[in-house]
Amino acid sequence: MQLIMTIDGKKYRVDVEVEEGEEVRLAESYPTTTVQATPAPMAGMPMAAPTPVTGAPPGGAAAGSDKICRSPIAGVVFKVVAQVGQHLEVNDLLVVLEAMKMETNITAHMSGKVEKILVSVGEAVQPGQAIAEFA
């Protein structure tokens, strides 16, 4: 079963495994009701397109921030994959963060040449912190 969740204005697609016949109840803050799980996806159900995980700067966007990829979560930089000068497409891997013993892939939110990598392995980052800048 796939759920689309909106957290702080950002949409996330989440895959959830539910055993057949098991009843599912979503948090009451979501405008849904209890649903009966089915083993196959429901045909004709509209699905929102996945939103790149890029985060938003606290307090609003600054000029030129559309070329800056930001961390959506607090974590520690586990691996820097992209390199300065490299051309990336949307959803290409930039950085891997580790948070709560889980790895989170941070991907490019736009196509373009990487102008700056603003983090390094082992560095702690906060939500909204700039990770990379595109030319």
UniProtKB/TrEMBL annotation:
Biased composition (Low complexity): 37-56
Record flagged with keyword Protein transport: no
Keywords: Biotin
InterPro entries, per the entry: Biotin_BS, Biotin_Carboxyl_Carrier/Decarb, Biotin_lipoyl, Single_hybrid_motif
Annotated CDD domains: biotinyl_domain
Domain Lipoyl-binding intervals: 60-135
Region (Disordered): 35-64
Organism superkingdom: Bacteria
One Pfam family per UniProt: Biotin_lipoyl
Official protein name in the record: Acetyl-CoA carboxylase biotin carboxyl carrier protein subunit
Upper lineage: Bacteria, Pseudomonadati, Thermodesulfobacteriota, Desulfuromonadia, Geobacterales
